[in-house]
Design brief:
By secondary structure, the protein is α/β, with parallel strands linked by helices. The chain is built from 10 helices and 14 strands. The model has no long low-confidence stretch (mean pLDDT 93). Keywords: Hydrolase. One of its GO terms (molecular function) is magnesium ion binding.
């Protein structure tokens, strides 16, 4: 029976240096040749879907943690912040002195000092994942398409979400209180160790997007599988018939997963695809 597979990107398909293991490419290519469908499901907006990633070959893409859904190159759903909403968030971040980047399918628009302030934060993020930090590291090494000189273009009406650097956990708490009608989260760490906050429309997550997609395409939920490594991936693992956590994943997702595979950089995807007979 053909399966529909939903893959998180960072920490699942790619390691923390934006590298895709050759074994993962081999597994995806063979599984699709065997009739299985594979969709990316990620917090990344479409502008972060770099060519070297998309040329692997997928059946569709869910971005912005569920705000955007496409299948076979056709947009099925896209819900974004309005210009008024984006402006309100950006102005609040500026007034609080927080650096940010606006995530849209058309680009990643960074605040004026994001490159400088974000460098040590991204280095900390990579280090926490147990990865070696490259010599002469810059923010654009981790985010190649980040637009550093076009901050004013962040005021737009096609924003999936806005991420911002946390100078302290109090910044997240203040954002959550001020923007209580929105979805305000953190990433890059657990609880008060989080490095980033983000804001988006409410009632959007990876599971909601998968539900929309499979209903539009007539896919049975019983034939779905999901792979992830982080807390934000838990809803889609819970929703799918089979949920697989990566060996490099956090304790929360490992505790609820149906199966735990090896880490992303130790052929984790290939081993799980093989375990579940997707390569036969």
């Amino acid at each position: 029976m053909a399966k529909t597979i939903f893959l998180d990107v960072d920490g699942t398909l790619v390691d923390y240096h934006n590298r895709v293991p050759e074994s993962a490419i081999e597994a995806i290519t063979q599984a699709r040749a065997n009739g299985h469908r594979i969709f990316l499901v990620t917090g990344r907006s479409k502008s972060e879907s770099y060519d070297e990633l998309m040329t692997i070959g997928f059946d569709g893409y869910i971005g912005g943690n569920g705000s955007y859904v496409e299948a076979d190159g056709e947009e099925l759903f896209h819900q974004t912040l309005s210009l008024e909403e984006a402006t309100s968030i950006i102005d609040w971040l500026k007034n609080r002195g927080l650096e940010y980047y606006v995530e849209a399918n058309t680009g990643l628009f960074a605040s004026e000092n994001f490159a400088e302030r974000g460098k040590p934060v991204m280095m900390e993020y990579i280090g926490r994942k147990g990865q070696e930090i490259p010599a002469h590291f810059e923010v654009t090494d981790a985010m190649p398409d980040l637009l550093l000189d076009r901050a004013d273009e962040g005021y737009r009406d096609d924003v999936n979400k806005i991420s911002f650097i946390l100078d302290s956990y109090a910044d997240f708490e203040a954002a959550r209180e001020h923007f209580s009608a929105y979805k305000v989260g953190t990433w890059g760490g657990h609880g008060e160790t989080a490095l980033f906050g983000d804001m988006a429309l409410p009632n959007i997550d990876k599971a909601v997007a998968i539900d929309k997609l499979i209903n539009l395409l007539g896919i049975a939920q019983a034939d779905t599988m999901a792979f992830g490594d982080a807390k934000v991936d838990i809803p889609m693992l819970e929703y799918s018939a089979v949920g697989i956590a990566m060996g490099n994943g956090g304790p929360e997702i490992k505790a609820m997963a149906d199966y735990i595979t090896s880490p992303v950089d130790e052929d984790g995807l290939y081993q799980a695809f093989q375990h579940f007979g997707l390569l036969d």
